[in-house]
Amino acid sequence: MINKLNELEKEALAKIAAAESINEINDIRIYYLGKKGEITNISKGMASLSSEEKPLFGQALNQAKVAIEEAINAAITNMEAQALAAKLAADSIDVTLPGKSFAYGSKHPITRVIDEIKEIFMSMGYEVVEGPQIETDYYNFEALNLPKEHPARDMQDSFYITPETLLRTHTSPVQARTMEQKKGAVPVKVICPGTVYRRDDDATHSPEFHQAEGLVIDENITMADLKGMLLTFARQMFGADREIRLRPSYFPFTEPSAEVDISCFVCGGKGCKLCKDTGWIEILGSGMVHPRVLEMSGYDPEKVRGFAFGIGIERIAMLKYGINDIRALFENDERFLKQF
Amino acid sequence: MLISYKWLKDYVDINLSPAELAEKMTMAGIIIEHIEYPAEGIENVYVGEILSVEPHPQADKLKVLQVNMGDKTLQIATGAPNVAVGQKVPVAVPGAKLPSGKEIQAADFRGVESCGMLCSADELNIDHSEEGKAGIMILPTDVEVGKNIIEVLGLDDAILDMELTPNRSDCMSAWNTAKEVAAVLGVKARDIDIAFTENSENINDYVKITVEDPDLCKRYTAKLVKNVKIGPSPLWMQEYLRCCGMRPINNIVDIANFVMLELGQPLHTFDYQTLAGKQIIVRRAKQGEKIITLDDQERTCHSENLLICDGERPVCIAGVMGGQNTEVTEATTDILIEAAHFDPVSVRKTSREVGVRSESSARFEKGVDLQRLPAAANRCAQLLAEYCGGEIVGGFYDSNPQEILPMKVLLRPERINQILGTDFSVNDILSTMERLDFPYVEVAGGYEVTVPFYRQDVTVEEDLAEEVARLLGYDKIPVTLPEGKTTEGKLTPWQKFVDDVLNTSVALGLREIKTYDFISPKEWDKLRLPADSSYRNVVKIQNPLNEDQSIMRTTLVPGVLNIAALNHSRSNSNIDLFECGVAFIPTGAQLPKEPMTFTGLVMGKTVAGWQEKAVEKDYFYLKGLVERFFAHWGIAQWRVAATDKYAFMHPGQCAEVFIADDFVGIMGQIHPLVAKNYQLPQAFLFELDLETIFQHLPESFEYHPFSKHPAMVRDLALIVGNGISASQVEAVIWANGGEYLRQVSLFDVYAGSQLAEGTRSLAYTLSFQAIDKTLVEQQVNDSVNKILCALDKELGVKLRY
Predict the structure, then answer these.
(1) CB-CB: which of A155, A165, A207 is closest to B590?
(2) Domain harbouring B566, CATH code
(3) Which of A318, B143, B250, B535 is 20 to 30 A away from residue B114, measured at CA?
């Protein structure tokens, strides 16, 4: 019987080795190991064996079953692996083909610059404050030390709605409104982005444009603090190796006043077309808040001081993105917009 | 403001090149925009004397000249009309170069050899007017033959173009500019020596002057000079005038202009003999009073214009323009010089009304130096005597001779350092006052600084701080950061919301645009708005740049349509755009309302790829976008209702959007006629009022646990009459679906031959689910039956299958 068993085992292993599909293997399993399978059948003859032969045969039977079982499992695993490999090979695609199409959106460059400015100043503890775009003469001019008939009003040719209201010519009225609202409390630390308007229209001037006004008031503010703040801004906006330069200037609402230049980010200060060979690029106006402005808004200039600065958003956008004509910003051609 | 470098050197020793000086001035606050060199491009042009003029043998229009150049005689052929024997003229000899780039060589002029060219003022870059082009420049007879023209005309100069800030109008004077240069360089400026002899007569015996309106004329001074001879002014003076952008006319006019440019005080010169009654009266005009000005125009005045009159009539519009009747002419012999202070605002208004802005009015508008009037009148008299042979009449008229006290400002060195954040020594600070020629004395708490009259801009200590800083150098200010209480940098919830709308729009594939807030009133007609449309109730600009930018938008729709049209015209037709900005709504209050408005437009086709076809965008594409916004905002109870009341929208494809009962905007297709007006294809837009939406944003929300039990799903295909909207059907389903109805979603809309006319099929999937148990069939069937009964009863909607 053991010989028969060995033969069956040999025969089964040969069939398994020759099998080509999982179905065939399953048939082999049933043929040999099923309830009516050959191995099952032969095991039924064990009862007729002597008590010495029984354990030997039992052992051999088990070995044969295990051997067949293992061979079947190995064959199945192998076939499944092959089938999977075949499927993977068949499913392979050109991964370089483009993906599904979705529409792309984009932010206007002016918004991008305003976002960046807000972020830079918020990280330095500034609140963002806004104000109306149609303003009273009082907030736009008078509260900023620009009484009626002041010659410096000519610097800002205005669009009037009535003799007492106009399209604001700068974001500085938000300064006056904020100070008035804070009722003499310090510190004040605000950045005020917004739309402003002046009667100018050419390649470098748009009748409508954007500014961000910054204002800080506290007990011991100095012009050196202004310089430090502006250097931080310039470096975050235009690169860590920027330097700044202050030049005396004039704004009715600040004294002393300064125009601020940054070292040219194209040539690094050596001189190029962008900086007109000066190494410097003018980016904003600033100064110490004029004592009359502080007084008018309820602050005592002997006790507190402040600085203010006004950043031209279009100017920054044009510099940052290399835009030559301000009108491109308001033309809104999609081929322009999609670059941002 | 233009200034001659050579002129400045008359008052200050400058050891710097014009470019170096410009750099120093700019860094001290007087910006030099540009430097021009008058001699640039001129080479080998010399003074020649015309010895003979002969006709050209071959050409009628040409003449042949013999010209004495000092060391030689040149034969020159010319077509110039104004040549004559004895004239001295600029001659470009062979090898010469002119500013135009032209090079001169000996040449054959139709058989006659010509060795050089006579130059016009235009060709020498001196005078580009018609007069300068009309003929050869004729030089005064006393110039030396053979001398280089650059030297003769004083062209070896540099013109500095100063961009003056409004506070530094004092530099509209060469002498004041020289004082500034002296302060910047740390040297002393020389004073102008105004010394002359006058006769024993008295001006007051010649003319009676009365100032009737001292509020508009704070001070009026006058000086009389007799027996002047009219002629050209000296060449050096002509060069200075030209450098400053003024054309030389004759010695009288040039001297008056020269003194104005030198001292900053505009002067007027009257032909004394033409003054009726030998009187000057300074008064407001009578309403409708007329005067013919120097430019031959008749001007009508009103009662706020200040006039200078003689005994009978107006002779000058004060500070703006003189009258023809008393103008200096070739026949003039006696000159009455006026140096006055006129009210800046009055001059400004009058000059605008008259439409004349002159060098003179520009100075009066800024406010002239009250104290300098006598000096200016006297300086003019001195030069008239020196260059016009005049005899200065004794005495001086002054309407307001009282002493004027200068401004005094307290200077506390410690406070200057506090303002600047510097550590300048007291000596350093005081040294700047000395450089500026601001006298000071020590007083309790600091120094009292006396500010000269011409520096009207210095009135408070902070002004002195700027003077100190700019002269010691802004680069000496250190770099620090503010100390003090820390503050929190943050956005308000509203600011966060608006930022989020922008970010979400971009994430959903919309491109942001920026359009002007002012628009054309013509837009309303293009939008087909009726005359009484509320959109037409606008804020108007009184002084727009043009009609097309004359009203403030009440909606962003026209701006968005125009940008869509521009892009369509450039074949960028498949776009989704949005703008976020304020509209301006008149309220009757002083300032209008400025609601933040969010407007989007979609047109053309969806993006195509190799897997999917592009399809035409439609109302539902637009609505899908809007739905995403509301989902993102967490606002569930929003709804739309069909409307046909917007003239610019398609009456069958437009909806109003509401949250609860609040109207928050519109969406739909643009009316085909409006699309045509804007030359647009079919396009869809939404306009939403962000402020109202913001009020409905959920302040907070809570997590709802979801059911772990399976949902039971029923599909219902309903036959719905065309007059009944999907939202009505859905409302009935929800109202009758019972507590377990979780979701109602439309999966098919069908209209066609299989259905009765006037009906369509809406197919919904209804999903039922309980939080705590598995529903049984019967519960769901009951709910569905209840829904179907209600649909039938309330809307006549029946089950299709």
Answers:
(1) A165
(2) 3.30.930.10
(3) B143
d(CA B765, CA B714): 6
Instruction: Note whether residue B581 is domain-resident.
Output: yes
- Asked if residue B704 is part of any domain, the answer here is no
Mutate to test the interface with B, among A157, A196, A227, A295 (most CBs of B within 10 A): A227
- Sort out which chain A residues have CB atoms less than 8 A from B492's CB and list them: 128
What is the domain extent for residue B138? Answer: 43-152
Q: Which two tokens stand for residue A210?
A: 């954007």
CA angle in degrees (0–180, nearest 5) for B412-B416-B419: 135
At B115 the three-state DSSP class reads coil
Residue B706, in any domain of the structure? no
**Nearest neighbour of A227 by CB, restricted to B28, B479, B612:** B479
Alpha-carbon span B513 to B408, nearest angstrom: 54
State how far residue B562 is from chain A, nearest Cα, in angstroms. 10
- HEC letters along B609-664: CCCCCCCECCHHHHHHHHHHHHHHHCCCCEEEEECCCCCCEEEEEEEEEEECCEEE
pLDDT in tens, B681-737: 999 999 999 999 999 999 888 888 889 999 999 999 999 999 999 999 999 999 999
Regarding whether B80 and B51 lie in a shared domain, the answer is: yes
Q: Tens digit of pLDDT for each residue in B424-452?
A: 999 999 999 999 999 999 999 999 999 99
Nearest to B489 among A121, A187, A219 (CB): A121
CA atoms within 13 Å, Cβ hemisphere of B413: 17
If asked whether residues B414 and B382 sit together in one domain, one would say no
Q: Which pLDDT score is estimated for B284?
A: 96
User: Do B674 and B770 belong to one domain?
Assistant: no
The answer on B504 and B422 residing in a single domain is: no
CATH of the domain at B752: 3.30.70.380
pTM of the predicted model as reported, rounded to 2 decimal places: 0.86
Q: Which of B344, B543, B570 sits opposite A159 (nearest CB)?
A: B543
Which A-chain residues 207-266 have CB contacts (< 8 A) with chain B? 207-208, 216, 218-225, 227-229, 231-232, 245-250, 252, 255-258
Residue B412: give its domain's CATH number: 3.30.56.10
Q: Position A309: which residue type?
A: F
Per the structure, how many domains does chain B have? 6
User: Closest approach of chain A CAs to the CA of B352, in angstroms?
Assistant: 13
- Residues of B with Cβ-Cβ distance to A291 under 8 angstroms: 460-462
- On whether both B339 and B231 belong to a single domain, the answer is yes
One domain, residues B505 and B635: yes
pLDDT in tens, A181-223: 998 899 999 999 999 999 988 878 899 999 999 999 999 999 9
> Does the beta-carbon distance from B572 to A102 stay under 8 Å?
no
CA distance B624 to chain A (A): 14
Position A155 scores a pLDDT of 66
CATH code, domain carrying B363? 3.50.40.10
Q: For the CA atoms of B390, B395, B399, B405, what is the dihedral angle to 10 degrees? A: 100
| B228 and B366 belong to one structural domain | yes
SS3 category, B261: helix
Cβ of A322 under 8 Å from any chain B Cβ? no
Which residues of A are less than 8 Å from B27 in CB distance?
Answer: 247-248
At residue A277, the pLDDT reads 86
Tell me how far apart the alpha carbons of residues B650 and B666 are, in angstroms, rounded to a whole number. Answer: 12
- Of B472, B503, B522, the one marking the end of a domain is B472
* Min Cα–Cα distance to chain A from B376, Å: 24
Chains A and B form CB pairs within 8 A to the count of 255
Q: Is the pLDDT of residue A278 over 90?
A: no
Sort out which chain B residues have CB atoms less than 8 A from A130's CB and list them.
495
Q: Per-residue pLDDT tens for A39-57?
A: 888 888 888 888 888 888 8
Q: Is residue B27 classed as helix, strand or coil in its secondary structure?
A: helix
Going by the DSSP 8-state scheme, the letter that residue B764 receives in this structure is: E
* B551/B461 same-domain check: no
Which of A145, A149, A157, A161 best tests the B interface by mutation, with the highest count of B CBs <10 A? A161
Domain end marker among B380, B398, B416: B398
